[in-house]
Design a protein that fits this description.
The protein is built from five helices and five strands; from the N terminus they run βαβαβαβαβα. The protein is an alpha/beta fold. Helix 4 links the parallel strand 4 and strand 5.
């Protein structure tokens, strides 16, 4: 469960991929109370390597790391970590861009401007009914 919702830890790990150090640190600190491990990377190459090596339960992916190729990035992440869910973090409040991210395979899109209010619900929705092995089995 998430820190503001109930006590306890959720099995599995989170890979936070964001080029903004303060945001990454804040996300790490907030998620550490709820997951077995939280790992932070700041670039696309590290994201791909981390997805392959860690097989995280959840990935928070900054849209800026996609460099205009979100569909390709999400496809590559799915091939490297097929049981992981990806949440896209976006600076843009654009319904068309959000729809494109969801169509490309994102579990949800969270806008950075409303991150504190919206991230908990997005994580819960992303992890509801996960297919594949239970997160604790990784």
């Amino acid at each position: 469960m998430l820190p503001d919702q109930s006590p306890g830890r959720r099995p599995g790990s989170v890979l936070v991929a964001c080029g903004h150090q303060r945001m990454s640190e804040g996300l790490r600190d907030w998620l550490q109370a709820s997951f077995d491990g939280v790992f932070v990377v700041a670039d696309r190459a590290s994201l791909l390597a981390g997805a392959r090596r860690l097989q995280p339960t959840l990935m928070l992916v900054d849209l800026a790391l996609a460099a205009g190729r979100l569909e390709a990035l999400l496809a590559e992440l799915r091939s490297l970590a097929p049981h992981s869910r990806a949440l896209v973090l976006s600076d843009h409040d654009d319904a068309r861009a959000d729809a494109a991210a969801l169509a490309a395979g994102a579990a949800d899109v969270v806008h950075k401007a409303t991150l504190a209010a919206d991230l908990g619900g997005a994580v819960e929705r992303a992890l509801a009914n996960l297919p594949g092995p239970p997160p604790g089995a990784r």
